[in-house]
Amino acid sequence: MASSDSAGSASNRRVLAASLVGTAVEFYDFYIYATAASLVFGSLFFPKSSESAQLMQSYATFALAFFARPVGAAFFGHFGDRIGRKSTLVASLMLMGGSTLLIAFLPTYAMVGWVAPALLCLLRFGQGFGLGGEWGGATLLAVENAPPGWRARFGMFPQLGAPVGFIAANGLFLILGLILSAEDFKAWGWRLPFLASAILVGLGLWVRLRIGETPAFQKVAAEDGTTHVPMAEVLKRHPGALLGGTFAVVACFAIFYLSTAFALGYGTTALGYSRETFLSVQLGAILFLAVGIIAAGYWADARNPRRVLMWGCVGTVAIGAVMGLMMGSGSLVLIWAWLAAALLTMGFVYGPLGAFLPSLFPPRVRYTGVSMAFNVGGILGGGLAPIAAQLLADRGGLAPVGAYLAAAATLSLIGLASLKPRYAD
């Protein structure tokens, strides 16, 4: 096993910083949209109707990015496997950052009618398209630079971008809610987090431009081992890995977006909590996601990522079973406890994915394979989750939403049971 000195070398610190900062920026961009969709987009960008109908339309634009992500995964995966990880990651970050920034300048439905939601959908598609190439590339940047015995701990750094981005996004919305009136926040305050994304994107680009290409890709390129059409090779030679990997990631998306976007919308409408109160509760709970990711990374290197992911799925079933009792209890303490437990458990179905998914594909098509599995799984687990959960909650309360989460975890468990890692390089 490599020493901690080797793992902590200056070049590796730059690589890990690049993988973490970049995904933190991406998740900040992605989550400020999720937060705004839960809080204000329904009434700002859609015609007046029932509060639930406007929220559903807002969630529909939220889901659009998940359908854009596989398209982005195929596009950026192609170039990531053909010309390299670094330049592809820079391009994906610029696309998503630019789309997010432009949302700050959108007119509302009251100003331009249906042009407003059309433009919102276009930029939301751009966000998803950019993120489609982000996670896979950031993960490979970390894992393909990892010393022997450190793959899961290196692979957890891109995952840590999720809680970092969430804290930045949620914290900023909370501050704005405390210093602005509800009228000012709805009129213009919601635009500020989208404007602030420009600063974070600049930071991410600065970090990523200072790193080199990964050893695994350098070896493939030196041996002239790149493929002309990576997607075709993935579909022809690795369909089982692609399908199983897609199922394996469903649980992490479902648990994240049910405990963040859906919970925020439900908590501020059906449960009647103020925006600031519920954001504060979520902000405290998200720290447990970071704890879960780190614990899972160490456990996965000590055992193996697949085993940790499977145990995480079992835990997610249990979290789904108690969702109705705890979220619907009327106690803010129990609501926080459920959110904290859900996000802690997410660490175990999310953290080891960085080491597990790359082991299913050879380096020559790894960017494409990993990105497609992760982002198609995102449609199944995340893109439809807030919409499905809202429909289930409107008809039967929170218990059916918990059953939906348990079903997502079971699907991931089936996918993991069908797979075994094949590539260690």
Brief rundown of the structure:
By secondary structure, the chain is mostly helical. The protein is 81% helix and 0% strand.
What is the helix/strand order? HHHHHHHHHHHHHHHHHHHHHH
What is the count of DSSP helices, taking H or I runs of 4+ residues? Answer: 22
Straight-line distance between termini: 15 Å
| Share of helical residues | over 70%
Mean pLDDT: 88
Give the CATH superfamily: MFS general substrate transporter like domains
Going by CATH, the architecture would be: Up-down Bundle
Structural class: mainly alpha
Q: Identify low-pLDDT runs.
A: none
Name of the CATH class = Mainly Alpha
How many beta-strand runs? 0
Strand content: under 5%
What does this structure look like?
The chain is mainly alpha-helical. It has a single domain (4-221, 229-417), classed as Growth Hormone, Chain: A. 81% of the residues lie in helices and 0% in strands. It has helices at residues 4-7, 10-45, 51-82, 85-103, 109-112, 115-132, 134-143, 151-179, 182-189, 191-208, 215-222, 230-237, 239-248, 250-268, 275-302, 305-321, 323-327, 332-350, 353-356, 366-383, 385-396, 398-417. α13 (239-248) packs antiparallel against α22, α14 runs antiparallel to α18 (332-350) and α14 runs antiparallel to α22. The chain is globular. The mean pLDDT is 88.
